[in-house]
Prior knowledge:
aminotransferase; AspAT/PAT-like; Aspartate aminotransferase; pyridoxal phosphate binding; pyridoxal phosphate
Amino acid sequence: MEFAERMSRLGTESAFDVFAKAKQLEAQGRSIIHLEIGQPDFPTPLPICEAAFRAMKDGYTGYTSAAGLLELRTAIAQQLSISRGIDIDPGTVVVAPGAKPIIFFTVMALVNEGDEVIYPDPGFPIYESVINFVGAKGVPLPLREDVEFRFHLDDLKAAISNRTKLLILNSPQNPTGSLLQADDLAAIAELARHHHFYILSDEIYSRILYEGKHVSIIQFPGMKERTILLDGHSKTYAMTGWRLGYGVFPKPLVEGIVRLMINAHSCTCAFTQIAGIEALNGPQDCVDQMVAEFQRRRNAIVEGLNAIAGIHCLKPAGAFYAFPNVTQLPMKCDALATYLLEEAGISLLSGTAFGRNGDGYLRVSYANSLENIQEGVERIGRAIAKL
């Protein structure tokens, strides 16, 4: 079959490929510790599940408004107004089956062929994939270890041109766990206003934070009119399989985004949306407990990795990923990730899965039990010693 040319420009997430290979080894009887997939290993809190079941019994099993149930959009707007410190109109909130559609539809609606989009590198691979798919030019913005995997302002200024249409931000960040500071965001906001480009601010990990304070660029003067804020339930409430994300858009963009949604998927599952309301309005102690456990795991994995000769790992401020530097080891990071899977039964990702500037690093997800993390670090140490 001959695919359309655009399909050759569409990338993927290699985490799922590595996960599949690891599952094959498990099926052969190998003991595998999974440190590759970015999803909480906690169950969805019971009150959220019960709200979905009640909604099914109450008839929430049909179509809804393409933009989402007004009750959910209102709950989202209220929660964001408090957490971001600005007034959010429910009419600017659009609910989607996951956060990825917000990325895809934003790029589809805003970016023409030949436009330029700046994206973080290393960064979530779907950013670059969608940019390439629409025929735009992706401009990688290097995240530097010497500034805790943030960016140098001069690098951002050099990346901007008269064709820059969109800048993608992600904080806390996948794969590095870095957190943009208020000074970083103030500088970005000034450049966006001066050069008239939009911001897609991916804040899906905003509640999974251990150090510092989450600040959103939408809070800065004049930025509500040029920011698309992306968030969702997947990470915060351990609801990855429920597929529930949302975006806050400048008002002129909402109608176009909704049209794209009608063409793509009609609407988001109704009873999932009711569960989303319960998640936002119900007790939040489940989130606090999960983040506290992630922090314990973070401390253990960073300490363990730094005890291995040839590995250096910064302590991430948020999300649930460590991004150790392995440039001192006698093996490239791609080969090292394969070696650790085959030799030690440790499934993790090469930093190159997240862009050219991920070369020399590994991404290690600590969305696994503390016991497995400790065993995993010991296995890594033994495998590295053999090198």
